[in-house]
Specification:
- Strand 1 and strand 2 (15-25) form a beta hairpin.
- This protein has a domain at 3-72 and 145-241: P-loop containing nucleotide triphosphate hydrolases (Rossmann fold, 3-Layer(aba) Sandwich), CATH 3.40.50.300.
- The protein is of the alpha/beta class and 242 residues long.
- It contains seven helices and ten strands.
- It has a six-stranded mixed β-sheet, with helices on both faces. Strands 2-1-4-5 form a four-stranded antiparallel β-sheet, covered by helices on one side.
- The relative contact order is 0.18.
- It has helices at residues 41-49, 88-99, 104-113, 129-141, 159-176, 187-193, 227-241, and strands at residues 3-12, 15-25, 30-35, 56-61, 64-65, 73-76, 147-151, 179-184, 196-201, 206-212.
- The longest helix is centred in the C-terminal third of the chain and has 18 residues, at 159-176.
- Bound molecules: adenosine-5'-triphosphate (ATP) and magnesium ion (MG).
- Magnesium ion is lined by residues 41-42, 151.
- The site of adenosine-5'-triphosphate has 11 residues, from strand 2 and helix 1.
């Protein structure tokens, strides 16, 4: 699904978190959003999710105004936010249960895909942080979202788990072709995952850089060591420092 923002602003009291941002994200694109803490990244994501409303301007998805959350858009937050009293399997099934029908074979398949097979009956406190984050990703994926909104989903993971999750996400995106908006603090992660890089600046929150990421697919986390990748990263860092 295509996402359009037309002069979207969001004020929190005297703070202009977003300053008249206009943006079109084409269907099936993987967009990465990079920027310093407080520059408005989560604000942007929450508006697209329909969890918050702009102070002015319009957001739409496939031409329809965004006024509330919808099953077409699923958010993965930095904190997994699992329900402590539910098993892993019930946590993953939660969104489908709310929707009214549960596809258990699909739930179990996705639990297997994120590498949590055998842990279905475990409660969140019995899982590591990385496992909980994978469960949160599974919970989002079983909704078959047309738009996947990810707010620093891998920031709390150790490097090895993060790399595995990055490769997993890329592989999955290649298969299901959903539109992804992925927020990160990490330049490597932004360049390695995305088709398009958006860099935001703070106070007021604006788009400083918006350009395609000219790297071939398929991609893997270890391409951050390739000379072509390093050259691109150096160029982006140069722009960021300017
Ligand atoms: N609910 C809120 N009430 C008041 N101010 C808010 C609220 N949400 C965000 N802000 C302010 O808006 C600005 C942007 O916040 P936002 O959370 O979007 O930043 P961010 O880019 O996601 O930062 P981080 O990388 O630390 O997550 C900040 O100055 C923040 O204080
Ligand atoms: Mg944030």
């Amino acid at each position: 699904m295509a996402i359009t923002l037309d002069r979207v602003a969001r004020d929190f009291g005297a703070i202009r978190a977003l300053d008249e941002i206009s943006l079109t994200i084409a269907d099936g694109t993987f967009v990465t959003v990079l920027g310093a803490s407080g520059c408005g990244k989560s604000t942007l994501l929450n508006l697209i999710a329909g969890l918050d409303m702009p102070t002015s301007g319009r957001l739409s998805i496939d031409g329809v105004a965004i006024t509330k959350p919808g099953p077409d858009r699923v958010v993965v937050f930095q904190q997994p936010g699992l329900y402590p009293w539910l098993s892993l399997r019930e946590n993953v099934a939660f969104g489908q249960r709310l929707r009214g029908t549960i596809d258990w074979p699909r739930i179990d398949e996705v639990i297997g895909i994120v590498g949590l097979g055998g842990f279905e009956a475990h409660r969140p406190y019995e899982l590591s942080g990385g496992m909980q984050q994978r469960a949160a990703l599974a919970r989002a994926l079983v909704m078959n979202p047309k738009v996947l909104l990810m707010d620093e989903p891998f920031a709390a993971l150790d490097a090895q788990t993060r790399h595995r999750m990055q490769d997993f996400l890329l592989e999955l995106w290649g298969r299901i072709g959903t539109t992804v908006v992925f927020i990160t603090h990490d330049i490597d992660e932004a360049l390695m995952l995305g088709d398009r890089l958006i860099v935001m600046q703070a106070r007021p929150g604006r788009i400083a850089i918006d350009r395609p990421i000219p790297l071939a697919r398929p991609r893997h986390w270890d391409m951050v060591l390739d000379p072509g990748f390093v050259a691109l990263k150096r160029a982006v860092m140069g722009i960021l420092a300017a």
